[in-house]
Amino acid sequence: MAASTPLHGNELIDCAKANAKDGIEAAANLCGYSGDIETFERELHLAAQHMGIKLESFQDLVKTTEVPKPIGIEVAPDTSTEL
To answer: How do residues 38-52 score in pLDDT, each as one tens digit?
Structure first.
């Protein structure tokens, strides 16, 4: 659901990260900036700077939301009492 007013600060960063995989237009819309991509990006950079986060571009958010693929296999007991 899109925000009724433009988000700022932590809320903006969280919303942008959560919607980064859908693209900048979708993220801007859902964060309350409608089609104003320029303002969305500017506010996103300001929020990141305020939080001490290095954010070169919106694509940096896409990279941080990707889940790494697990390597190897998991070895675990069949039950909590049997190995």
So the answer is: 999 999 999 999 999
Inform me whether the pLDDT recorded for 69 exceeds 70: no
Q: By the 8 A CB rule, do 17 and 44 touch?
A: no
User: Please, what is the angle between helix 9-19 and helix 37-51, to 10°?
Assistant: 120
Sequence ranges of the domains in the chain? 9-65
pTM score, whole prediction: 0.72
How far, in Å, CA of 23 to CA of 77, rounded? 42
Higher pLDDT, 64 or 9: 9
CA 45, CA 69: separation in Å to the nearest integer? 29
User: From residue 48, how far is each of 7, 27, 61, 65, 72 by CA, in Å?
Assistant: 13, 16, 11, 15, 35
Which pLDDT score, from 0 to 100, does residue 66 have? 52
